[in-house]
């Protein structure tokens, strides 16, 4: 391994060495036949530049205006569930890096560290990503926590009505909640650095990690099963409920997981300030269209009325430039 990581491919290899296989594949792979992952990459690779030459580029400006504020970079740190299991206090470290760069950090509903603790430990511009659960009262506690922590931007993820089928998790003995089994135990034992520096530090301090945003009555450590159906992702959410949530939330409201122009129009009609053109990193619906293919039409039709963000298989700065050229205002990575 190189002593200095220079690109995301090298970062991926470094993570593969440190993380147990089950955890690495949980964040690295897709769903079902894993068609969406290479498709998203191929869609970006197919975009080619046709540059003008002999243009004065000595004064370059990478900043972008977003929701009335200027960001130094057209980048938003995307919500990542369970980041705190990949690195000790991972959510706080990511938020600190985002704050240093002057970009927003989006806290996941399913993070190990609460948005309040992230705000105290890292500061910065914190957005909150929301899943709607079967128990809407619990969902409201997530929204309340975001508001109490000072977040002014809510990102509602709408592309996960049912749990994706990730067969490799079963083969690896990995799942949430974590169930003790010999495959996972052997996997952990072969990755002592992670065991000591991550899980060992949690156990020596606050104990076994849990979903920090869940109310005390429902909170469970990651090795225990959730209580009934209350914590399952809701599969009956409609645009009517989204419009009602928009009216209750006082800040900026973004809907993540849009791939169609008609859904983008519905998002605008229900009061959304922005959307994220996204297929959840190819991790949910395996044959979903790549964001880079869906983005141009959506941007052409609605880009002057809606802040359009995008994500999907971004590996380098040139990928960000491509998504910006296709119509995104900024990119989630």
Descriptive report:
This protein is an alpha/beta fold and 333 residues long. It has one domain (8-49, 61-166, 229-332): TIM Barrel. 40% of the residues lie in helices and 12% in strands. The strands form two sheets. An eight-stranded parallel sheet has the order 3-10-9-8-7-6-5-4. The chain has a two-stranded antiparallel sheet with strand order 1-2. Strand 1 and strand 2 form a beta hairpin. The radius of gyration is 20 Å and the shape is globular.
Distance between the termini: 24 Å
Please indicate the count of domains. 1
CATH architecture level-2 label: Alpha-Beta Barrel
Unreliable stretches covering 5 or more consecutive residues: none
Q: How would you describe the shape?
A: globular
Structural class, from helix and strand content? Answer: alpha/beta
Tally of separate helices: 14
By CATH, the superfamily comes out as Aldolase class I
Order of helices and strands: HHHEEEHHEHEHEHHHHEHEHEHE
